[in-house]
Write a structure and sequence with these properties.
The protein contains eleven helices and 14 strands. With about 350 residues, the chain is an alpha/beta fold. The chain has two domains: about 140 residues, Rossmann fold (3-Layer(aba) Sandwich); about 150 residues, 3-Layer(aba) Sandwich (Rossmann fold). It has an eight-stranded mixed beta sheet with strand order 7-6-8-9-10-12-13-14, sandwiched between helices. Strands 2-1-3-4-5-11 form a six-stranded parallel beta sheet, sandwiched between helices. Helix 7 runs parallel beside helix 9. The protein is globular, with a radius of gyration of 26 Å. About 45% of the residues are buried.
Length: about 350
C-alpha cells in the first residue's frame, strides 16, 4: 500500500525537487551576477572635487572595479547646499550600496553623521584635515577611527604658500581672506594662516561668509580695507566661487592665490597644493581593496603628503597684477609644475617644489 502511494507521488516529488533546484540555481546565478554598488557624494561642483571623484573611480578601476562592468556607481552632488547634502547622505546610507566614496570635508561629515551604525563602508578623499572634522579620528593615532571609515587627508602647506607670496612681493603687508567658519577644514586652514602671517608680519583681513553668494561681497570688503592680494584657503564655499573671486580681484588690480590648484590658466596668480586627481586615485585604490575584502578597521588614516608631493602653478599673464610689484624669481619659475604665459599652459614634469613644508608652531 505504502509502496503504491510512493509510486503515485514520485513524479510530483521529482517535479518539485527539480523546480526547487532550478530556483536555487537561478538565485545563485543572480547573486553571482550582482555587482558591488558604490555611491559617490561630493559637496559641490569644482575642479578640485570633480578631479578627486574622477581619480577615485580610476583608482577603483585599477583594482578591477570598472564602472558599468564590474561595479555599479551612482553619483550624488549636494550643489553646495548643506541641508541637501545631509538629506542625500541619509538616502545613501539607507540605500542599496556596499560602499560610499566622499569628496570634500562636508560630504565626509554628512555621511559619517548618517552612518553612525556603520551600515556602509566609507572611504574619503579631498579632505584637508580629517582629524578636525569631528568624525571620530585621533591625530595622535591614525588607527583610531570608526571601523568602517578610512581615507586620505590632504592638508596643503599654508606657511609655505605665504612664503611664496612674499617671494613674489617682498613688501606684502595685507592679504584679504573670505572664509566659511562653519567648515572645519576652513577653520584649520585659517588657524595655520594666522600663525604664518603673524610670523611673517602680514595682516590678514578676514571676512566670514555663510554661503557662496556672500563671497564676492567679502572680497570687495577686504579690497576696500587695503588688501594687496586675496588668499583662498581650502574652503569649499569659497572655492566654489573662485571664478568670481578672480574676476573681482582683477578689476581691483590685485592677484589671487590659493592652496587648491585647479586649471592652471583659470586666473589665479599662483597655487600651492596637491593634484586632486592623484589624491582620488590613491583613495580609489584603497576603496578597491576594501571591496575586495580588506578590513578598514585595520587601516590607518593616511596623509596625502606622505605619498604625493605638493606642486606649484604660476600664471605669468594673470589679469590685474602690477608687474613692477609682483615679480617671479627665476628659481621659483623653475620649480613650477605648470606655467601659464601668453602662449598657453606649459607643463614642467620634472619640476620639484623645494620645501620644507612644515607649519610653524604657535
Amino acid at each position: 500500500m505504502l509502496t503504491a502511494i510512493l509510486r503515485r507521488c514520485l513524479p510530483t516529488i521529482l517535479l518539485l525537487g527539480g523546480a526547487s533546484a532550478l530556483l536555487l540555481a537561478t538565485d545563485r546565478s543572480r547573486s553571482h551576477r550582482a555587482l558591488p554598488a558604490v555611491a559617490v557624494l561630493q559637496q559641490t561642483s569644482s575642479t578640485v572635487l570633480d578631479d578627486a571623484v574622477t581619480g577615485m573611480l580610476d583608482g577603483l578601476a585599477e583594482r578591477g572595479f570598472e564602472e558599468g562592468k564590474t561595479v555599479t556607481v551612482r553619483r550624488f552632488n549636494a550643489q553646495g547646499d548643506m541641508a541637501q547634502g545631509n538629506a542625500i547622505a541619509r538616502e545613501i546610507v539607507g540605500g542599496p550600496f556596499d560602499l560610499v566614496l566622499t569628496s570634500s570635508t562636508p560630504s565626509l561629515q554628512q555621511i559619517a553623521s548618517a552612518n553612525t551604525r556603520g551600515r556602509l563602508r566609507h572611504v574619503f578623499a579631498a579632505v584637508a584635515d580629517p582629524f578636525s572634522a569631528g568624525v571620530g579620528l585621533d591625530r595622535a593615532d591614525p588607527l583610531i577611527h570608526p571601523a568602517w571609515l578610512v581615507g586620505y587627508g590632504s592638508l596643503a602647506p599654508v606657511d609655505f604658500t605665504f612664503g611664496v607670496a612674499q617671494r613674489l612681493h617682498p613688501g606684502l603687508k595685507k592679504v584679504g581672506v573670505p572664509h566659511n567658519n562653519a567648515e572645519s577644514n576652513s577653520r584649520r586652514f585659517m588657524d595655520l594662516a594666522r600663525v604664518s602671517c603673524r610670523k611673517r608680519g602680514i595682516e590678514l583681513l578676514e571676512v566670514p561668509v555663510e554661503n557662496s553668494s556672500g563671497v564676492i561681497e567679502a572680497v570687495q570688503s577686504t579690497i576696500a580695507r587695503g588688501a594687496e592680494a586675496i588668499f583662498c584657503p581650502g574652503d569649499t564655499t569659497v572655492i566654489s566661487a573662485i571664478d568670481s573671486v578672480i574676476g573681482t580681484a582683477a578689476k581691483a588690480g590685485i592677484p589671487v592665490f590659493t592652496v587648491n590648484p585647479g586649471k592652471p590658466d583659470r586666473g589665479t596668480f599662483f597655487d600651492v597644493g596637491f593634484n586632486f586627481h592623484e589624491i582620488g586615485v590613491v583613495a580609489g585604490r584603497l576603496a578597491g581593496d576594501v571591496l575586495s575584502g580588506a578590513d578598514p578597521a585595520t587601516m590607518p588614516i593616511r596623509e596625502t603628503a606622505g605619498e604625493i608631493p605638493p606642486y606649484l602653478t604660476l600664471h605669468r599673464v594673470a589679469k590685474g597684477i602690477d608687474r613692477t610689484v609682483w615679480r617671479i624669481p627665476d628659481d621659483l619659475l623653475g620649480q613650477a609644475r605648470y606655467v601659464t604665459d601668453a602662449d598657453g599652459v606649459h607643463e614642467q614634469p620634472a619640476a620639484i617644489l623645494a620645501g620644507p613644508f612644515n607649519e610653524p608652531e604657535e
